[in-house]
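Entry 14. Ran structure prediction on the chain below.
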Amino acid sequence: MLLTTYLSCKAPVFIAPAMDLDMFAHPAVQQNLERLRSFGNTVIEPTEGELASQLTGKGRMEEPEKIIECLEAFFASRPEKDLAGKKVLITAGPTYEKIDPVRFIGNYSSGKMGFALAEVCARRGAEVTLIAGPVSAEVHHPNIRRTDVESAEEMYQAATAAFPAMDAALLCAAVADYRPQNASEEKIKRESKETMTLHLIANKDIAASLGAIKREGQVLAGFALETQADGRTYAQDKLRRKNLDFIVLNSLRDAGAGFRCDTNKVTILDKNGEATACSLKSKQEVAVDIINKLTELLQ
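Output, structure tokens:
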């Protein structure tokens, strides 16, 4: 009955899996979930916790209240095609700066936030250009055109080439600020060395570069992940220096926010001094909040 209902269903389908952690992690299950996503279904990820087997791990069905929040967020954004005809550039994921052929400088970004933004924009009618660093995340909506890059320089070149034709850009990628001055063409051997000095030079600032060429009518947004208690001060300074229209601030001091999480807790600060604090929620729901702000500024 469930299968026949699904196969004949023309409405949006949501799947909230629940199973033992080893079952959920099995490649067959993961491939099937990806296939379901590719058909346009929404998978509400299970959470971590104690399972029926007495083990603890990922496989516990999301709480009913959270499932309802996901449904509300989806249907709140779905009826409106308020970004129809708009072109939006989004950067996502980390960058890798080579030390030698097998080592690099990078960070913990998974790209989940940027990919969630791309999906929400596309669902609301935008034509999305997604420039992604090295991540395993996949895109599902046909309105998303993805370009894969590895280094900050490659992301800079792709972003500056695409931005002039865009109506807006959301710079969500965690771009490396520095790279090795000289990357070795061969693997660096340890041999008898107990120390090694690595000389770093600054990468080009993508946000500042796009802010400098931003034309009237374009909207440019950045992200600031901070660890200091006064993170808002740093974010507001970045907003001004880089000519952004708004900036999304989150802090590693907040549990469940930041890298490698399925949730986020952000504050949206705009150039007019308005601040919107959002509670901890899924990155898909946070993406809706951010795109609501973008849509407001594009009108």
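The mean pLDDT is 92. Will compare against last week's run tomorrow.
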